[in-house]
Amino acid sequence: MACTEAEWRGWLPAAVGECRYALQDGAAQVHIGSGTLQLQWQGQPARVIALVRLPRLLVRFAFHNVATQERTAFMRRFDLYTQRGGG
Questions:
Q1: At 84, is the pLDDT very low, low, confident or very high (cuts 50, 70, 90)?
Q2: Is the whole model's pTM more than 0.70, yes or no?
Q3: Cα(3)–Cα(58) distance, integer angstroms
């Protein structure tokens, strides 16, 4: 993800919507239906392209016992709330 940890933590509440979640240091557990999503993140060196510096955050998603339809719906919302626009 091209964001800082502070930005990421700021996006999470809206991105997970009505799902309950618990934050930890560098991780979060999200309850989706009868399953869970374990998120883990770690800051990475910024990507530098000419004069542009993009912050980087390595994020791992691990779904456990989440049905495909629930996972798809969750990720559709999550992606919308964490995308950065351009143009």
A1: confident
A2: yes
A3: 10
Token couple for 43:
């800051």
Q: List residues bridging with 48 in a β-sheet.
A: 53
Measure the CA–CA gap between 66 and 33, rounded to whole angstroms: 7
- Mean pLDDT to the nearest integer, 48-76: 96
DSSP 52-73: EEEEEEEEEEEEES--HHHHHH
CA distance 5 to 55: 9
Letter for the amino acid at 54?
L
Alpha carbon distance 36, 84 (integer Å): 26
